[in-house]
Amino acid sequence: MEKIAIITDSTSDLTQDIIDKYDIKVMPLQIIYQSKIYRDKVDITPEQIYSGMEREVPKTSLPLTADVVKTFEQLKQEGYTHILGAFISSGLSGTYNMVRNMANDYKDDFVIELLDSKSISWGSGFGIVEAAKAREAGSNFEEIVAIAKKAIKNTRSIFVLPTLYYLKKGGRMGRVEGTVGDLLNIKPIVGVDEAGDGQYFTIKKVRGRKKSLTELFNVIHNLVKDKEAFEVIVLSGNAPEESTEIAEKFKAMPNCKYVLETSVSPVIGVHTGPGLLALSVKCDSGMDNIKEDK
């Protein structure tokens, strides 16, 4: 009989309620801040990160080797036979490759399927949640893997930032152009190339915060307005009022079946800074790729 574990990393931005409800195992990335090491969403909160970023920009790192080993060993002790995992894009972090390499030591203990989401936040989170729902409904491992892959394939994630300073500081610019953006008050709408290398790219460049939030909503609205149904996650980095304003716009759409407002993890916050607004949207009937601004 199959006993299936579902694992992910802390940047999937699942709420604690969802983690507890579906028994999802989360491997935290690390934050190095003020000469101390913290585990993402375990030892440090986003608010702690944002409050001190003007004095010192933290650094981030992969999960502790000991945490990954502990996860696999605990699953073995608890009698799990199969493991499904989905992780932050390998184009943005070495987490997926790290866990995949360490999983080789356990190939005789489990049937393991690890997915590179080629995305971030709920770009992998949707796949994890849909897999967990399928496990709860009694699906077998092969079916659960297919459901997770479909959810990830049908999810798009985009965001906008007040400044590109922190993205540049952390070396996560990808194909986003930001040399003079801050000087001209240009706010690029940034996407993740889920169909390609899993790196950031510029969807559209707009001037000013207010217009950038309008365009953030419009990009996703245009993707889903003719769909039968969609689900959306509205994520913020210390911008709750703007987050709620966008969430309310989606709630007013008759084909919007689910809206969740939540915060990005501290690790993501390190690379985006305060003021991030992000959207992850899933449509089971399929999603077009978001085009890069040329």
Automatic annotation (TrEMBL):
<dbReference type="InterPro" id="IPR050270">
    <property type="entry name" value="DegV_domain_contain"/>
</dbReference>
<dbReference type="InterPro" id="IPR043168">
    <property type="entry name" value="DegV_C"/>
</dbReference>
<dbReference type="Pfam" id="PF02645">
    <property type="entry name" value="DegV"/>
</dbReference>
<comment type="function">
    <text>May bind long-chain fatty acids, such as palmitate, and may play a role in lipid transport or fatty acid metabolism.</text>
</comment>
<dbReference type="GO" id="GO:0008289">
    <property type="term" value="F:lipid binding"/>
</dbReference>
<keyword id="KW-0446">Lipid-binding</keyword>
<protein>
    <submittedName>
        <fullName>EDD domain protein, DegV family</fullName>
    </submittedName>
</protein>
<dbReference type="InterPro" id="IPR003797">
    <property type="entry name" value="DegV"/>
</dbReference>
